[in-house]
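Re-running the complex after MR caught last week's input typo. The corrected sequence lines follow. Everything else is unchanged.
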Amino acid sequence: MGFFIAQLLTGLANAAALFLVASGLSLIFGVTRIVNFAHGSFYMLGAYVGITLMGVLPGVLGPYLGFWGAIVLTGLIVGLAGALVEIVVLRPIYRAPELFQLVATFGVILVIQDLALMVWGAEDQMGPRAPGLRGVFRIFGEPIPKYDIVLICITPFILLALWALIAKTRLGVLVRAATQDREMVAALGVNQRWLFTGVFALGSALAGWGGALQLPKGGADLLMDFNIIGPLFVVTVIGGMGSLPGAFIAAVLISVLNVFGVAYLPQSTLVLMFVVMAIVLIVRPYGLLGKEEVAGEHGQSGAPETPIRPFGRRGRLAVAGLLLVMALLPLVTQPFALVLLTDIVIFALFAASLQFILGTGGLVSFGHAAFYGGGAYAAALMVTYAKTPMEIAFLFAPLGAGMLALVIGWFCIRLSGVYFAMLTLAFSQLVWSLVFQWRAVTRGDDGLIDIWPSAWLSGTVPYYYFTLVVGVLGILFLRTVIHAPFGYALRAGRDSARQAEAMGIDVKRVQYVAFALAGALAGLAGGLFVFAKGSVFPTELEIGKSFDALIVVFLGGVKTLSGGIVGATFMAAVEDWLTRLHYWRLLLGLLIIAVVILAPEGIVGSARRLGLRLGLVKHTEAD
Amino acid sequence: MTGANPAHGNRGPGPANRRDDHMNILRSLIAAATAVTVLSAPAFAEDPIKIGDINHYKRMAAFAEPYRKGIELAVAEVNAEGGVLGRPLEFVFPDDQGDPGEAVKIAEDLMTREGTVMFTGAILSNVGIALSSFAKEKNYLYLAGEPLADTLVWKSGNPNTFRLRVSTWVQAAMLAEQAAKTDAKTYATIAPNYSYGTEAVEAFKANLKRLKPDVEFVDEQWPALFKIDAAAEVQAIEKAKPDAIFNVTFGADLAKFVREGTDRGLFDGRGVYSMLTGEPEYLEPLGEEAPEGWYVTGYPWYDLPDGPGKDFVAAYETATGETPKMGSLVGYTMAKSVAAAIQKAGATDTASLIKAFEGLEVPSTPVGPLEYRAIDHQSTLGAYVGTLAVKDGKGVMVDWEYKNPVPYMPSDDEIRAMRPAN
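Corrected-run output:
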């Protein structure tokens, strides 16, 4: 009994910081519809700023006021930083396509990571102790740290204060109104700009407070921004995006379950919360307290889309010319350029497969790496265990990934919008942990090695040609599908599911098939990857890999297939160039932010618009 | 803090130059923002011999920065004494972001365009394994400095890969030997849930069971790396009531585990055997909360007797203004090994270098003479083991000793059976 209660209390204490940070993310999403990847960075900033202030303030204000004053002040400072980011980075791009802002927040992550490294150094820092709260209380004979009890007592008050702010104040009324229908709020004359800035600042401040409050139980390190992102999204989604009480319930649920998971299923720590999220989303597609998303409302802003058309004659000639140049390149260039180009073609195919489902299908997948890595592993497993020749093992990459997509898609396709994205994320995490933990078969993170191509393809030049042919055929295949009747049906379902249904299109089935196709082509890219590198590790299945693809698709331009390809080329080339420098993350982050602000429709979309304005491209050219 | 990598200015003529123009603009930008330390080397008539160290300089900054400074110190010393084969030695430091695929791409870049003669690096074992497989396929030479995985030189060992640091198996065996001397019968283990953690626990169990067959392992905890729920872990271990604990967590996980465990009295009256905890990277952040009485592997740089070890500490402090970390020692020793190998080979082609590394003796390193064993390409760098204590508000290792790794390794026959036929 005592042990049970002690565990429950531990879970509740852990929930405190998680709830604070998640409520900030939820608020920001509810009002601005921004999926803020950088929220973890504000949490990390909170921890570092907190440590710094706790080193200074107690000397001035005495230990008690100094400690708690430092926590309060930390939130305010991080809130200011949040407001700054909103004004400088996000404000110029609110009218960009749906979810485009997440690219900008990714840039912010990189910038904050390097700034934190410059300011606070590389070494981990222990959090200061809360004054007067060292030691434990004995509850049923079990030791419970005093600070845990304080955290458990504070959390309901924070929830209450936030609830009062939202329910009782004018700001709260505006926030709720904007969460429901922000166009209407704007039409009623509310200054949306400052409302968004205010909410973003409040959300960031909550993240900062979360970071500062957890200090006596942990500390500050440079990895904590990424490490909290997973639990954060899980809590927000289980609770229902935009719902504060939902975030509270979900934070408690996840934290308590985690504590019991550690006691009774110690191996489960990698996936438990993603399993819970998948179950919740399958049973309640909009989270525990979330509301169904109204079709068309979700962040749809900006100019209406012009229907895409196949390239005109000039465009086709240009592409053909480019391909010719690429085919002749080995005659003139040195080997490394070919290695880099091989990587770029593989990445472009991966990005194009995501663009297909995301841009054409309107299904934002946050877990596309499951199919890329899945394809790589399918081929690698065949080579390792069946000694399959490369030519046959390679076919298993798209095949295996396609099958995987059929399974995952069956669960995910019934959802839409952010909830669809989160369920794909959960499933990709499940695949990752399966590969990671099933060491007997996959060798865990020691990976599968010595997966090299057959003799006739080994060597840089032959493999470059192989990749070029397979990659180009894959992309051409996607292009054909997009401009075939199937592609029209898919786009119809994206633009108006109801009208498409009325015309006799089985929207869900079309989406399901498209999802499987996208998975198979991502797997194809994975197959090319594994034979290019000779090894595969669970890193190819990580969330970060999915985000890489997501970011280049948005960066390139979400509306046309060429967006993914251009974005991938741009990113791979820039990374290859920047990572040789010491503070490359800062530079890359700034570069991404600059591109996002200058080209809010992605590189391709904005280049096209510029061309239109300068008269270089004509509206009719595409016909 | 070092600025942009000085090596990038030295590219020869050729297609790379166009890229240099871009780099120059950026470089001057960075130079404005940070202090650029340029190693002062004597004037050499000849082109430098280049080595590429591929690493996760940002993702694992706490270990990688001192490691890089260690390399730079060694390179400066080598060049002050006239370089190798009459040419200056030069390291370049590309960042692979901790991604094995990226690391392989960079290795290819280094060997085909950058003109390096071999490559070194990696902290994460999976990156090291990827580089090792790549080196074998393309017949390059790879020296792994830091990766601990046993498989790198044993089950997946290959002729093109050498490794400096003492592996997981050996460190766990040293701790198990000490644990076997006590009366403790029941053990709990806690390790991060990835290869290094699992390997360490397996090695500790195997060695302890061999020395003391009646021990029992009553609980195993597997927190996700850097995502530990320390309070829950401590409660779960406490529930199993073990006599002693084997810990493999490190970094931020370790700090949280130590704090919760101390608060809740988990370590009272229990022996704790802990991997890497005595390394300054992980011990210094704990400050006065360093867990006293733990038996750990680490690096007691503050307590070394007169000799090469102490000289290295002094030189490092003079050069960098910081105290050395474990990474500093590894980076320094690795760069010195590379210099010795090139000198012995008398050439810089891969075949000669591999031949030179097999059985290579490096006479004067901070830990004394080293050898790269011909049988498994593992160096004989050992490990410091000792007990943690708190002095002047800081954690230190006391009653420590430096242990030669060879007695803790599997027998030569076992190694031959494990290694794929060369």
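None of the earlier attempt is carried over here. Chain B has a mean pLDDT of 88. The two ends of chain B are 43 Å apart (CA to CA).
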